[in-house]
Amino acid sequence: MTINQNSTATNETVARITQRIIERSTETRRQYLARIDADRSKTVHRAQLACGNLAHGLAACQGDEKIALKNMAHNDIAIITSYNDMLSAHKPYEDYPQKLKNSLRAVGAVGQVAGGVPAMCDGVTQGQDGMELSLLSRDVIAMSAAVGLSHNMFDGALYLGICDKIVPGLVMAALSFGHLPAVFIPAGPMTSGLPNKEKVRVRQLVRAAWRHKSHDRKSWTCSHENVGSSGR
Length: 232
Known about the structure:
The chain has helices at residues 12-24, 26-39, 51-58, 63-70, 96-106, 122-125, 134-149, 166-176, 196-207, 213-223, and strands at 76-81, 110-116, 156-160, 182-185. It has 10 helices and 4 strands, in the order H-H-H-H-E-H-E-H-H-E-H-E-H-H. The protein is α/β, with parallel strands linked by helices.
């Protein structure tokens, strides 16, 4: 496998590094693809479940959904959500699962929330002990999503998450279950709060002791007071 050497759009350094990665990862990529092929089934995975296993997997479904999934005639889509109230960028996800279920139902599929994953906000924990968990949380997110997908009920997966550790963690899980089609759903555009220039101006005044720290706190609160803002 090689990259297109005739492409003039690719920076030479990027092309060289990319080619080196391709060559270096040939064997591990082969092993990964072989595992995904082995996991991919000609039939839905839930068809391989024992009656007791399947009954548990369908217990929370509506009556017609149970019939559809038992007959293996409709797709069952896993929903992995990272909603919480700590990360304002994830607030819109609060009612996404039900909206997704309704949309899936409209096209003849079934949606099930397979699991939830943690999502921490660096803006809250920065400078605190909790910040030590920031990078670690990526692996916890990946494992948490994998726990939800391990039920082997699903024909595909929808991942709800944004921000810088949540998405990589979800991608790691999606790759681990690479035989399942995956779609990542953003929470929409981030609404603006206080402009960055105004935040900078207020902080400069505080550092110069021209204004009380309470004004600084107020400016930061204003800048992040909207649902969907994420400190960016």
